[in-house]
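Why does residue order matter? Because the sequence determines the fold. Keep that principle in mind as you read this record.
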Amino acid sequence: MDKTITLRNPVTGKERTGYYGFSRDALYTGGLIWLRRGDFWAFLTFVCTWLPLIWIYFFVPRQGLLDTVFNGSETVMGIPSMGIAYGFIVIYMVAFHIVASATCNKKHTIFILNRGFELDPKAPNLEEARKALGLQ
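Structure:
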């Protein structure tokens, strides 16, 4: 689970959960956690970066679009050139996912704070959350 902090709207009294620190939940679920948390735009950020890469992986080779760049019989150090191209795609996807997981909790909580919520002053981890969110 991600680290949490209680957020409270001073006008309505409504409470929400804010998150800070590295998002293991986003890393493990591929961004689906944001739908459960109600942040559709954060979810869309994950999906919009993955869909083009998935399209490239599954459909481009079958349409022959990469034949002009990679001949399937060519090898580089014994590795098929198409395998190298797929390897770069996978490395990009994993690197993006790790970076996004490191920043998405802070962005989500700041988004909630900008909608009129405030950090709960009674929270035991208030100072840690302020420091992690850059609110000091």
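The mean pLDDT is 80.
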